[in-house]
Amino acid sequence: MVVISVVVVYLLGMVAIGWYASKKIESNEDFMVAGRRLGPVMMAGTLAATEIGGGSSLGVVEKAYGSWGFSAVWYVLAMAVTFVILSFFAPKLRNAMVKTVPEYFRRRYGDAPGIITAIIMMLPLIGLTAAQFIASAVILEAMTLWSYSTCVLVVSVIVTVYAVLGGLWSVTLTDFIQMFLIVGGMFLAVPYALDAVGGWEVVKASMPAEKLSFTAGIGWGTIISLTIIYITSFAVGQEAVQRYYAAKDEKAAVQGSLIASGIYVIFAFIPVILGLIAFAMVEQGKMDPELMARGAKYALPSLAMATMPSVLAGFLFAGIISATMSSADSNMLGAGSIFANDIYRVYLHKNASDKQILRVTQMSMVVIGLAGLLIAWANTQSIIALLMFSMTLRAGGAFFPYIVGHYWKKASWAGVMASVIVGSTAVILVEQKLVSFFGLEPIFLGLASSAVVFVLFCNLFPNSENTVELKPE
Q: What are the TM regions of this chain, as residue ranges (predicted)?
């Protein structure tokens, strides 16, 4: 009962923050990009919390418990590498002065690239929202013994309410708090779990040596794939790029990206250690293997319930739910922003007022939350598998036109259309096993084909205006 009380207080607190943030919203720009006033610390907090989600917490514990072992640390370390690289592009992203990635495509390349990227980028965000709902529901289910369907419903309603109330400012404030809950809650679990298992030497003695390898379980191929997927996907992902758009200036954008990278390095080892401890406890009979019967994704909640005092277990559960909710709200806001800014305002109601666009953003977020709820109810896939495909799909065709478009004057309508269509199609074909590309992940064929046709068509049909400047709205 104590555990449930702690989590309930946390959930109500998130709604209260959403209500508070709603009082600061005076315009659509306030709602979508927090008035472009995020400093480096706030930006780092929201960047870190956004990408530390169900995959980085429950998913990493699951993989460390399972086949990846200690090398599961690379699932998060690859994010640290990614945000160091993105810091070099941060000034260009901030100075574009757009609200969404499809808006950049529309103003840089034309209407057709804008609407195509809007659709391609909205769909993965709905899938990513569902994945985070799933992860949050797993925690509530393990903690309360409520049905999975009930837990998905509770999580979906809470996230939708506070995200819709305050937009990016609400999401940033909750993310900042959630970052401390995520890292702090999981960090507190380590000493209790180590004490319960008998120390780190006992953990090492309970498993084969290869399970403690830094690279063997995951393999260099997957490490490289993860890094490429993160770089290309976060560079065009609305939920991440929206933070760069919201930075108060170039310096804040760069510093926020680097600080977020440091947070990833600190966090990366915590869920891995917890996954290995759970494995050792089951091996030694110190934790009932029946607790794991429903799947390794229950490793972390089962470990916490078996080793931690009730109050701290509640704090940990709040932290894990924070991890998943902080990603879900960003995905929902990203998808809602794209629909309102790049579909409704451009094609459905060209003379819409700022207030009307704001209301449509909020209403579309409700619809996206409902869609995520329905997907989460039906989903049976691995959390990480769902995340990886969603990120790969949007990155396959859009990465090169988006990043290169900030620098290359020749980048043109013909090049981006070929790149987005061919790259995205290639990702789907490999994912569905209709074609193979040397046995590599779908992202490789997507990026390779995208790059080739982008360069080819931009040279054949270059931008007639010979500029990287965006057209005015």
A: 6-21, 72-91, 112-139, 145-169, 176-194, 214-237, 258-282, 302-323, 357-377, 383-404, 411-430, 442-461
